Amino acid sequence: MDLFPISNMLVGFRKNKPNFSLVAQGTFFVRLGEMLQRGFTMVESIDFLLLSIDQPPLNKALRVGFERLKNGDRLHDVLKEVGCHPTVCTLIYFAEQHGKMADVLKEAGQWLLKRNEEQQKLKRLLQYPILLCMFVGLLFVILRWFLYPQLEYLHGSFSYSTSSLNSFLSFLLYDGPVVVFIASLLILGLAVIFLPYWKTQTPLQKVEIYRRLPIVRTYFTLYHTHFFSRQLSFLLASGFSIMDIIRLFEKQPFKPFYKEMASYFHEQLMKGREFSTIVEDLPYFKKELSIIIRHGEWNGKLEYELDYYSRQCLEELERYIKQLIQWVQPVVFIFIGMVIIILYLSVMFPLYDMINNI
Question: Are 222 and 342 in the same domain?
Fold first, then answer.
């Protein structure tokens, strides 16, 4: 599903990996696309842009990588070696086929910048809750090891029975952290056991597991519907047939999921099935995609309709991510609030019990 870790390594610099951040990548690709649109060659554009990168390790790594362009290497291979985002490498791979390199570079750069913006926004939203969690943790330590023993001593001085609610709150304060710790160990143990099984799964089988996760399922469907329809649009507009496009997906080295799915497409097309029908049977895309393909094939404007639909899916995906980010902080605050209430009650109820029994 993706979603999207960054930074591989330039071969030969693995021990001192240069930091080619999302912002640096996004800015680089946007400017590279703009320069190509203004008539600069790829080599001229890259040589110029490297002048503005003032991080010596990164600059050196990029220069070593891009020297391969002058020797005839493909751009997507070079970008992979210098640690660029795999999704961007895939986009460049297809751009080398359909020729709209400048447009794709700008879109890829804007996508990276947008993604970085979302990550930074999430970090800002979590900063205050994290500070509150640290404060609550400190408060818990004070109550658990300093104040509550005094309350227990007072409780022992008065011979009265403890209420069930008071006993439950005491359990949460004393044994709650132990329960959480044991549960964490169990989850970690299950993850270690599950890891070998995960490695044996094919890309399509892994995707099936992703699709069972509620939040991930929606993101996955929107992202891959956008990505697939966007590449179809570009390639169809450049004169590629559906079968040619499927072969390109089979050959690309960056996304095993698409590689395996393309093999399935190829097999079904060879059996004489219609492309739209195959898409309709796959659960990885929105249901509307097969309808769009069928309608576009009917009126002869498939590439244009796919282009419009891919942009529509991207807008929907961005709205979904914003909604998730907006939900994060309130959920964390509610959790912290519940913990504070429990800590407060765990102190006040024993006091009320003692007062009532005086």
Answer: yes
pLDDT digit string, tens, across residues 278-310: 999 999 999 999 999 999 999 989 999 999 999
| Residue 308: other Cβ atoms inside 10 A | 15
Residue 5: band (very low, low, confident or very high) from pLDDT cuts 50, 70, 90: very low
Residue 137 placed within a domain: yes
Q: Count CB atoms within 10 A of the CB of residue 305.
A: 17
Is 114:318 a contact under the CB 8 Å cutoff? yes
Domain span including residue 303: 120-358
Which of 84, 111, 131 is the C-terminal boundary of a domain? Answer: 84
Residue 54 φ/ψ, nearest 5 degrees: -100, 15
Model pLDDT for residues 317-358, shown as the tens digit of each residue? 989 988 888 888 788 888 888 888 877 777 777 677 666 666
Distances (CA, A) of 79 to 64, 89, 93, 97, 170: 11, 6, 10, 16, 57
Q: In this structure, are 279 and 348 located in the same domain?
A: yes
In sequence order, which residues have a C-beta less than 8 Å from that of residue 92 and are 6 or more positions away?
Answer: 75, 76, 79, 101, 104, 105, 108
Query: What is the pTM assigned to this prediction?
Result: 0.74
Domain co-membership, 267 together with 147: yes
Number of domains in the chain: 2
Q: What is the pLDDT of residue 9?
A: 32
Specify whether 184 is located in the same domain as 316.
Answer: yes
Confidence band for 30, pLDDT divided at 50, 70 and 90: very high
In this structure, is residue 91 part of a structural domain?
A: no
**32 and 166 both lie in a single domain:** no
CA 71 to chain centroid, in Å, comes to 35
CA angle 298–302–307, rounded 5-degree value: 150
Q: How far apart are CA 44 and CA 52, in angstroms?
A: 14
Write the pLDDT tens digit of every residue in 261-283: 999 999 999 999 999 999 999 99
